[in-house]
Amino acid sequence: AGAAMVARALWALLAALRAGWCLLPQSGYLHPDEFFQAPEVMAGDILNLQVYYPWEFLSSTPCRTVVFPLLTSGVTYWVIKSLQQLDICSGCINSYTLLVSPRLLFTIFSFILDYSVYRLAPFWGADPWKALVLLAGSYVTLVFYTRTFTNTLEGLLFALLMVLVSSRKPSGSSAEPTNSSLIGVITTAGFFNRPTFLAFALMPLLYWASLIVDSQKSIKTLINHFLKFILCACFTAFVFITSDTFYFTSVSLDNLYSTYKNSLIDVIVQLHDRMVVTPFNFLSYNLNPHNLALHGSHPRVTHFTVNGVMLFGILHILAIGAGFKMLKKYVCQLMRVRWCYRGPPGLPLHSEGSPALLLFYFVPLAFLSLFSHQEPRFLIPLILPLVLFSASPSRAVKWKLLVVLFNLLGALLFGCLHQGGLIPCLFHLEQLIHSPASTSQPQRYTLLFAHTYMPPRSLLNIKKTDVHVEVVDMAGAGGETLCHTLEQRASNFTCSDCHIFAIIPGTVRATITKCGVSFKNETLIFPHLSMEDPPQIPFLATGNWRSQLGLYILELNRDH
Asked: Whole-model pTM?
């Protein structure tokens, strides 16, 4: 009882940390997709801000559904827009609210994971509060599940699916699942969010199907379950396809109404000709090895050997060890059964505990490993079966100190340091651009970003009608290209109200000094760690270490 009380208090503390750190906010920038798969697009559509639309959301190449961005970032931006229009909050739209409001909604949604763990732990033979502490204390929950990734939604839908397929009778035995309709809705919604969701849904769906088959004596009832699943899946797909078709094409309700007055068949033909099915476009693009190579190719074992360890640390390693033991045991059983001529044994799909949870963990991992492009965030949904497996009463959580240190380091690295200067830099530039001095006398700003992640332009809070701010993303341009661009901008520096800023990590500062330009008003934002341009170890041991772990905002000197 005392240990349970401590675990509850610890979980409450970690839950408060999750919400508080979101509001602070977290400065770490994990990957451009956390902005460009939802908030950036919705800021342009709903708030009419200058943004960069990624290729997946262009009408010529629609590969992402717009439904989830609208229901998440879209809703939060609509709320702050309405508050400002009603004069309830005159300055509601600023870089802070643009960043934090979608993250806050995702942070609230992240507690679906906690609810799922609490519901699932007794069913899968895990200690509920032990599992909750492991979940809430993981830096994956603290950092990744509070960001606006489609992978985050994928993890939440996977958790809900596991809850729906795992039900228990009062007697303690597995109960027949009665949520066929909801299972169909969630499976289809997950597929439209990310087609890779099918890799995560495979084992829960097989488990659900096997329970139905084993518990039914009537073929009519069996067919009824599958019909409910298919009908609800088809209806959900219809909703997504219709929404995406309206968003990505020029079809409007007025056009449809005028066409409907002539012929219903014409309406159907018009919708069919312009129908947008984003998952198929996504799969068509990603199944092309050439396209995947553009985003980076990795060895097929990267998820097993690198990404799993990077996300889950010792828990992933222990799961691999347990998986090999289970496989060895199964092979031995198989050999003994064949020796006795009784046929192969079945996989432990119905067992409620470690063997089945390992399948829920490793089967999606194996399917995702078939693709050459492998990023750590693709695996974040697997935290649910992993903490349930690790919190089994028969499995004492060893290496507690190592687990704590690992998650502290992960939270510091990805929540604070990784590209950690870029978001504060955009906050600073937004205040500069919208300062009273700038608004009273119009100024022109050119912002050159080099060797940073793609800057989300929405955080500058500039309307599409404003033309006085230009953002130039030079990505990882070489020193010669960078100097040439700066020198060219300096030579065209004629107007008195023009300001040119170069935003670069400290590790590239030495390259800039060799260019034929001078700067003024240097601003150093600390900390900022660029893994693409890592700091030089000898410099970290000197007094110049802050420069190596910082992001510079350099204003070009027009008097040069």
From this structure: 0.91
Radius of gyration of the chain measured on its C-alpha atoms:
27
Domain count, the chain: 2
Name the nearest CA neighbour of 502 among 526, 477, 534, 537: 477
State which of 295, 310, 335 marks the end of a domain: 295
What is the domain range of residue 195?
1-295
**Given 248, 270, 295, which residue is the final one in a domain?**
295
- Does any domain span residue 409? no
| Residue 356 near residue 349 (C-beta atoms within 8 A) | yes
Does residue 394 lie within any of the structural domains?
no
Same domain, 54 and 196: yes
The string of pLDDT tens digits covering residues 420-446 is 999 999 999 999 998 877 666 778 899
Residue 499 bridge partners (DSSP): 445
pLDDT of 253 above 50 = no
- Report the distance separating Cα 277 and Cα 234, nearest Å: 13
Written as one letter, the residue type at 334 is: L
Neighbour count for residue 3 (Cβ, 10 Å): 10
Give pLDDT tens digits for 306-363. 999 999 999 999 999 989 888 888 788 777 766 565 555 555 555 545 688 999 999 9
For the record, the structure tokens of 284 come out as: 């068509």
Task: Report whether 222 contacts 268 (CB < 8 A).
Answer: no
- Residue 343 placed within a domain: no
Question: How many residues are listed for the chain in this entry?
Answer: 560
Instruction: Find residue 446's DSSP bridge partners.
Output: 470, 500
Nearest to 147 by CA among 189, 192, 95, 110: 110
Total H helices, total E strands in the chain: 28, 5
